[in-house]
């Protein structure tokens, strides 16, 4: 997975936030977290949804795997994160969406990108929706 992520990160940065392949035309950001146990910096490319009123949502889908991705555990421990969006880098604070907020964001993502509905069908866990809001 690391090699795959590294290639996407390099392509993203070389092309002002644009990548080809399966992510061509999709909203993609690079999420910078701090390892929950290691304390080391981590960077993960992922699709996002721009939220009304500012902020972004990202999805801990891990392609429908039975466990949450490592980056999700990292931001639970260290919620202050950075994201590269296009050519900008922004400071954000992460929180997990719940209830109606989660359902609204998740349903919009599945409607726009049906692959997320496939991920949901592949797993028994509820896929976390993470809201990234501008840091104060």
What would you say this structure looks like, in words?
This protein is an alpha+beta fold and 136 residues long. It is built from four helices and six strands, in the order H-E-E-E-H-E-E-H-H-E. A six-stranded antiparallel β-barrel has the order 1-2-3-6-5-4. A hairpin with a 2-residue loop joins strand 4 and strand 5. The mean pLDDT is 95.
In short:
The protein has 136 residues and is an alpha+beta fold. The chain is 32% helix and 31% strand.
Q: What are the defining features of this structure?
A:
136 residues, alpha+beta, six-stranded antiparallel beta barrel, 31% strand
Question: What's the arrangement of secondary structure elements?
Answer:
Layout: H1 2-14, E1 28-34, E2 41-50, E3 56-59, H2 70-77, E4 80-85, E5 88-96, H3 99-112, H4 115-122, E6 129-134
Antiparallel strand pairs: 1-2, 1-4, 2-3, 3-6, 4-5, 5-6
Beta content comes to 25-35%
Helix content: 25-40%
Strand order of the largest sheet: 1-2-3-6-5-4
- What class, by secondary structure content? alpha+beta
Number of helices: 4
- By DSSP, the count of extended strands is 6
Straight-line distance between termini: 33 Å
- Which ranges are low-confidence, i.e. pLDDT below 50, for 5 or more consecutive residues? none
> Rg to the nearest angstrom?
14 Å
Task: Characterize the largest beta sheet: strand count, sense, and whether it forms a barrel.
Answer: 6 strands, antiparallel, barrel
| Pattern of helices and strands | HEEEHEEHHE
Give the overall shape.
globular
Q: What does the average pLDDT come to?
A: 95
């Amino acid at each position: 997975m690391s090699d795959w992520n590294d290639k996407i990160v390099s392509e993203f940065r070389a092309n002002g936030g644009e990548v080809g392949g399966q992510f061509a035309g999709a909203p993609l950001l690079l999420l910078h977290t701090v390892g929950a146990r290691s304390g080391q910096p981590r960077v993960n490319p992922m699709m996002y949804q721009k939220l009304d009123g500012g902020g972004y949502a990202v999805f801990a889908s891990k392609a429908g795997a039975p466990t949450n991705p490592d980056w999700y555990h990292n931001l639970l421990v260290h919620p202050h994160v950075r994201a590269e969006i296009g050519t900008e880098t922004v400071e954000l604070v992460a929180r997990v969406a719940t209830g109606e907020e989660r359902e609204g964001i998740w349903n919009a993502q599945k409607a726009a990108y049906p692959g997320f509905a496939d991920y949901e069908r592949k797993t028994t866990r509820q896929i976390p929706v993470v809201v990234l809001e501008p840091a104060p």
